[in-house]
């Protein structure tokens, strides 16, 4: 080490930089935003973007409705290609739900206007929303 040079932590890197480097997020700002929002946990604790990450740490990233659970194998400081990135962690994430279980949102044609009352009721039925049994037109409110 040259005199005057600050000692560097060889085995650590910022958690937001590592998440971006191994391609768990598309941008580093998305990784930092996920950390600030509390979607990133390192060894069970909420992680700020600047938290140092070491080999062997478990990182949980909540992303698009599912948890990614990875264990750090290698520390990387710069963004790397996908084949190399996969070698930097062990993925312990649960498998994504099958396609048929993923909820499909009904899509209306562009320019179709506002949904009619019938359309709205069909959309609520598909979503599983239950309407109240109260009738606002009657003073007692109950439907008989």
Summarize the topology.
Blueprint: E1 13-14, H1 15-21, H2 28-36, E2 40-42, E3 45-46, E4 52-53, E5 58-63, E6 66-72, H3 82-86, E7 89-91, H4 117-127
Antiparallel strand pairs: 1-4, 2-3, 2-5, 5-6, 6-7
Helix pairs in contact: 1-2
Question: Short description, anyone?
Answer:
This protein is of the alpha+beta class. The protein is built from four helices and seven strands; from the N terminus they run βααβββββαβα.
Describe this structure in words.
By secondary structure, the protein is an alpha+beta fold. It is built from 4 helices and 7 strands. Strands 3-2-5-6-7 form a 5-stranded antiparallel β-sheet. Strands 1-4 form a two-stranded antiparallel ribbon. The longest helix is centred in the C-terminal third of the chain and has 11 residues.
- Main beta-sheet annotation: 5 strands, antiparallel
Q: Can you give the mean pLDDT?
A: 82
Binned strand content:
15-25%
**CA-CA gap between termini:** 86 Å
Question: Radius of gyration over alpha carbons?
Answer: 24 Å
Kindly report the oligomeric state of this protein.
single chain
> Total number of β-strand segments?
7
Query: Uncertain spans, ≥5 residues at pLDDT below 50?
Result: 1-9
Total helical segments: 4
Reading the helices and strands in chain order gives EHHEEEEEHEH
Structural class: alpha+beta
Strand order of the largest sheet: 3-2-5-6-7
Q: What's the overall geometry? A: elongated
Percent of residues in helices comes to 10-25%
Keywords:
144 residues, alpha+beta, five-stranded antiparallel β-sheet, two-stranded antiparallel ribbon, 7 strands, 22% helix
